[in-house]
Amino acid sequence: MSLMRRIYMDNAATTQIDPEVVEEMVPYFKYKYGNASSLHSFGREAYEGIEKARKQVAELIGASQNEIIFTSGGTESDNMAIKGIAYKYRERGKHIITSQIEHPAVLETCNFLESMGFKVTYLPVDKYGLIDIESLTKYITKDTILITIMHANNEIGTIEPVREIGEIAHEMGAIFHTDAVQTVGKIPIDVEKLNIDLLTLSGHKIYGPKGVGALYKKDGVQIQPLIHGGGHERGLRSGTENVPGIVGLGKAAELSKNRLTDDSAKLTVLRDKFINRVLSEIEESFLNGHPTKRLPNNAHFRFSGIEGESLILSLDDKGIAASTGSACSSKKLTPSHVLMAIGLNEIQAHGSLRISLGRNNTEEDVEYACDSLIEVVNRLREISPLWRKGPSH
Questions:
Q1: Does the pTM of the predicted model rise above 0.70?
Q2: How far apart are the C-alpha atoms of 276 and 157, rounded to whole Å?
Q3: What confidence tier does 1 reach under pLDDT thresholds 50, 70, 90?
């Protein structure tokens, strides 16, 4: 009996760790296992591994080495940035601006701050998921201390105008944070040129290990620490460092920087091939997100008369891993807040599919996945009470 073909197309949820990253990490499990705060040679080896990684991460985003703080991942980095600014600058103002389509790590943190007496404005987006710059200028005031807008949306892949957002923030004396978990390693990032003060990134989205991430904090920007203790990470994030994880993140960042141009070009071609086949060969199929201002690896569809969970499970039966939306909330049966924010109704939102391609995907993978998707959609529609031919409403 032959083994079923398995194709992974859920790289926005997590990526396969690169073999070179594993190779870089192994010595820090086996031989260089010292505590980076210790003065002996074992400790110095661990410390040197961390500082090398700090430089590698900084170079990926155009930052200085001393501007990188290591964390446990994207969620912690978002919390550190948003709460850290709120607590540090609360005497100056208590207003924060974000968007309706942020990752839960941002939205839930903002909700929490509202319960602590902060005022949060949740900006609407257009049908493509783009922030309206005019609405930002309308809501920003002298009391605004922080604007936190994601670089690109994790579900629909729309890339936001972060340079302009940062410019407006700085004109009004506000600090600008962006969750760049989905863009780091996929599109070029220069924190200086993009007017970014704080940036969140995560290891497992760039072929690195899970459980490690970083926060870029521009020199001069102050944050209140969330975790107190021995004063690690310049007193901003106490706790013995996850040395192998940090080393792995550093190597993943270096590889991403070296491969960014080639990866992006290859993924864009595969993405467009996938989108063109689906939209031309499946009736009543629609692309969610911006047609051009989107991540090179993201294709997000909705299909009339289809229920998303059935679609995912049917594709899984064919060995294809995809998702209905964010992995952090994929087990919840409530419709995606992102899809509702771009104007879809609950039925449309539930009929969605996110394909997120990765470095290892091939043209053959795309052809097989498209063939399978066409077959699955047609089969599900035959048994769906929601499906009827004709224009969707």
A1: yes
A2: 16
A3: very low
Whether the CB-CB separation of 49 and 32 falls below 8 Å is answered with yes
Question: Where along the chain do its domains lie?
Answer: 7-15+260-382, 19-256
Q: What is the pLDDT of residue 389?
A: 59
Max Cα separation, the chain? 73
Distances (CA, A) of 185 to 86, 354, 356: 29, 19, 14
d(Cα 162, Cα 199) in Å, to the nearest integer?
11
Which DSSP state fits 230?
S
Which of the four CATH numbers 3.40.50.980, 3.40.640.10, 3.60.15.10, 3.40.718.10 does domain 19-256 have?
Answer: 3.40.640.10
Three-state SS for 327?
Answer: helix
- In the chain the first and final C-alpha atoms are separated, in Å, by 46
Element (H, E) at 202: strand 198-202
pLDDT for 330 beyond 70:
no
The set of catalytic residues is: 328
Between 243-281 and 19-30, two packed helices, what is the crossing angle to 10 degrees? 160
What is the CATH number assigned to the segment(s) 7-15+260-382? 3.90.1150.10
Q: Which residue has the tokens 């074992």?
A: 42
